[in-house]
Amino acid sequence: MIQAGYRLVTDLPEEMRPWRDRPVAWANVSPATGTYHLDSSGVYRYYPTASSEGLDHPVGQIQFGLGCLASYRTETDPARRGLFLVRARAQADRLIDQRVEERGAWWFPYPFAFTHSVHTGVTYQPPWFSGMAQGEAISLFVQLAQVEELSSVDRAAYRAAADAAFASLQLGDDGYPWVTNVDSDGYWWIQEYPANPQGTGLSDYTYNGMVYALLGIYDYYCATGSQAAADLYDAGATTLAAHFPRLRNPKWASFYCDTHRIPAPTYHWHHVELLRQVQWHTGSPDWADRMDRLVDDYPATASGTIRFEPGTHTLYQLDTASSGAWVESKGDRQLASRQVTFAQATQAPAVMRRRIQGRGIYCLIAEGAYGGWWVGESWTAAYLLGVVLPTLYWPGRTVTFPGGGVPVDVCKVAADGTVSSRRTVSFTNPSNAPVSQRAIVNGRAQYLISAGGLTSYWVPASAVTADSGPP
Question: Judging by DSSP bridges, how do beta strands 431-441 and 382-384 pair with one another?
């Protein structure tokens, strides 16, 4: 398997560690109805119909358990904290009870038939296994093994479960069960949907499922220092880096998998968040660069206030949902256009900022004379005020100002878009500056300088060069 040399950063702040960003709210700690809810023993189960018997859903159970652990860490009320831990343990214990032991590893079966509604060839009869579940189970077991409130016996049991789950990711597709393989080009994959049985079809090569599994490898490495874990993470990150051009769908939502290459608007921001974590884990700026490209291709929606600079603007009515959201059957088709002219700068509320299919970034005016009309975003003409979609780098990146006396405008900006300071700087020779984040600031992609004489100033991304090299 091919490795590029990615190395893991273990001293991350607590809030940047895997699964801390998906806590279970107290109101959701005991779900009693719905397609997924708890059974009488507190286990999160899948109920396909209202009258069906609850079924085990490994990824659902694991993610619920990890969310409860995230809440356990921050909850201050002892009773609530205790219940979050009880819920997390119930999911882990159910996985352990239902495990299949094969090939010297533990596997966590899905006990129901499944056919993917969109991806042809992804059809299973029970039991079937998923690399996403195998990797996420490692995170759940490792994190429980680190809970000091538990007895040493229980912690050791969860650590042993993590070891047994990790063993499954060290096995290839030359036996059954299997969830990892090396493709014909030598790249190592964790398959959320492996061909079942092996050799009978093409696996899905799903991107988000692979990265979620890599989070488990990261947790395992931080807990054990395992060189095998470091090597697998390196191989997985190398695979994702090599296939990023196939994941990316320029100026639209990224693809869900490498096999079917179907754009997945509902998963695109998952890809952004997951690549953000890979950048944190590896400290490598190439991941920050990939993440930034995805943010620009299909940004998360935002709302706020549009500023119109003086002049003439073209407004559009587009075929969308009533909220302004994209609808596949409508395709953002243009219905009408009009021009308006403002003698002076003016503002209007915006209910949505998003990528319009086949166009650029547009803002939907919420109310007033132009309510329901869209305007294309341009930092020189019309844009959403303030700091939008901030991306935190860890570690920070380095940007290089051009030499030759080229002037570069920088500014300090408040959250509402108010500019409190402007400067124009120039350098005889190229000059470096550290930056801690990137955001869309008053309609323009900019970096926040984090040290030196320009600390707290934003610099336009188009005016500098950011580091983006591999390890």
Answer: unpaired
Q: Cβ neighbours of residue 212 under 8 Å, at least 6 residues apart? A: 132, 135, 136, 274
Which residue is listed with tokens 């790249």?
187
Residue 384 neighbours by CB distance under 10 Å: 23
Q: How far apart are CA 355 and CA 376, in angstroms?
A: 10
Distance CA 135, CA 189 (A): 12
pLDDT at 355: 98
* Low-confidence residues in the chain, pLDDT < 70: 197-201
Long-range contacts of 24-32 (CB under 8 A, 24+ apart): 24/64, 24/67, 24/68, 24/70, 24/71, 24/84, 24/87, 25/71, 26/71, 26/75, 26/80, 29/68, 29/71, 29/80, 29/83, 29/84, 29/87, 30/83, 30/87
Of 425, 431, 427, nearest to 398 by C-alpha is: 431
Structure tokens at 226: 């395992």
Q: What angle do CA 193, 194, 196 make, to 5 degrees?
A: 115
Indicate the SS3 state at residue 135. helix
8-state DSSP, 410:
E
CB atoms within 10 A of CB 46: 19
Given a contact cutoff of 8 angstroms between Cβ atoms, the answer to whether 247 and 231 are in contact is no
Q: What pLDDT score was predicted for residue 51?
A: 77
The values of phi and psi at residue 96, to 5°, are -65, -45
Query: In this predicted structure, what is the pLDDT of residue 199?
Result: 59
